[in-house]
Amino acid sequence: MTEASLEKHLFTHNSISSAQLGCGMCRYSIGETEYKSRVEQVRKVLARRKLDALYLTNGVSMFYLTGYSFISTERPAALVVPVDGKIAFLGPLLEKDHVPLETRLIEDVKTYVDYPGERHPIDIFCEFLREMGLTKRRIGIDNSLGALPTWGYKGEALTRKLEAKFVDVSDLVPSMRLVKSEEEIALMRESCKWANLAMGLLQDYTAEGLWDVEVELEASREASEIMKKTLGPDYVPKRSIFPVNLCYRGQIGEMSAIPHSMAQKRMIKTGDVVIGEAGVDVGGYTCELERTMIVGQTTDKQKRYFNVMLKAQDAAFDAFTPEAKCSDVDKASVSIFKKAGLGQLVKHHTGHGLGLETHEPPWLDVGNLEPLKSGMILSCEPGIYETGFAGFRHSDTVLVTDDGREVMTYYPRDLESMIIG
Q: What CATH number is associated with residue 245?
């Protein structure tokens, strides 16, 4: 599909006009000023808790504070934020030249050659912390091991090897991420715009006789190409390999009843219920857009399940009120399924937080009594799944506002628009 035909297609769907294709923002990532503000907020918390430094092993938290993103492996890596002094990155040598390309906030880069090495990296980290004058200080830490236990990593806990007093602050950065700033909301809004565009490609390319993987790859490639051409040289994905990720993930026909299906061996055929997904990296942030579509003619049962799902999502949207709790949204959608006699087909809660990760707090779950707050961004995705038949789930990205909510994704939801071919 050409860029011109894509614009025409999406204008027809009332998704976005050609005049709106370009982004009004001057950049496609969080600005350095906001990163500095986040660091200062962390330092104020550390000071209140009488802590001398923060030691982070979570790569998402490191990115949130500094804008530095890297591929996390078995090699230990950490970010140290002292109350006073330079922010330091502790990690493998292969990251040394990478850090200054991504951020100016990390001024001290301390490296070891590789893991496990002649000396274990954690022993070297202890030496680094001594050099920083933190040996006998109070350090907030998000992981007592001092390294993420991934990809077969083994090592003695940092907290057992150093004289410093370590305090668990694993909640610190995640709690900061719950409510999005204006810059974060702008990036998420841009992500939603391109997800709407991309979903049109996925739907257009889908046809009987094709393998869902080839559809996903072609649609993702073309959507990414158009996005890059439109946004220009300043755009680059920050936490993903591809700008746009479109997929069915094997949710084809009877496998659409498996919410976390991974792959499908057979080809798409007429009568299949298919669930497509779109995510777009803008500044490291991503929205979520999912649509249940049907290839060819629909059956009465498919229509019934689809329309009940749509009604449940409408009820969930309406439950985003200023005084609502996360649990209220889940209860609202589930009540619709129960009234329709389909409550037994519900397999997951109504939604979850979105931002730097595709799943992050808060959870729209009956057991979560946390109040919704203006600035939170969540998915709204009630679904029902009948084994051997099909699954039905739309997902939209929702911004909580002072007076309720804004549905940030706007791809068509009605059954007629979701018929392929």
A: 3.90.230.10
